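Shapes recur. Our protein:

. . .
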Amino acid sequence: MDSEEIPFMVKIEKYIPYLLLMPALLYMIFFIGYPLVQAVGLAFFENGQFTTANLDYLLYSPLSKFWDALKYTLLLAAVIIPIQVSVAFAIALLMNVPFKGHNLAVYSVILPLTISDVAAGLIWYVMLSPNGFFNKLLVSAGIISEPVRFFGAANRDMEFLAIVITEVWRATAIVFVILFAGLQMISREYYEAAEVFGATTWQRFRYIVFPMLLPSLQAALIIRTLFAFQIFGVVWTLAGRDIPVLAGEAYYEQTQLHHPGVASLYALIIALISVLIGYIYTKLFKARYLEA
């Protein structure tokens, strides 16, 4: 009986990797693959026939704000992501040094992560309104004589600034958590060896910290860029359609104009841009020491 069980177990063992991959594979099929196929179907097919009507509407209709949405989405990503990465990097390096109240400081930095994007938008809308805390503080200090107006279609640049401030405050913690975790994983032995050989602070950063933090930086940039192209709640709360963004236009086309095909096209464009940028990040920030 034993001689029959052993070959059977050996035969099963070669399928174990596939069985272990099965949950992830099923997840991708049902929650990514199926919606993706449905989106392509809604965007390019009508009554079983291929059509470019939704694409024509998106690109050429006077009702479409696609080009403005693409411009503002890219602008927001180009402004917000470098600020967040720089700020998060600086805070992570600071928090990597033990000091009194270290844990409290880390929790304080992470706290905005617990607030939803809509709630963050409402908080900053109240703070930056003409009668809000920010204007009252500046008027009381004598820095300005009249409140700064951040909102309204006539103040689009200030609305853009309000969105940047809110996003930096709310989502920098995401980048910080990833970079801080990466710093914590660098062994102290590297620093000690560098000190023995007389390396300066800059040399330790250049030859130890930065190269070993590249995988974490790559992950942080990919995740943050994906979120940047999905930005919606904060923009919708602070500026509505004064500053159109891709995700916001997808929502508007679906819920207000009842154009599911156009909304699906927006979703596909967001996905395509995210994949392209993710691919670029993986090429630019590949950790060389992992290639060996």
Q: What stands out?
A: The first strand starts at residue 45 and ends at 46. The chain has a mean pLDDT of 87. Residues 1-50 form one domain. The longest helix spans residues 66-95.
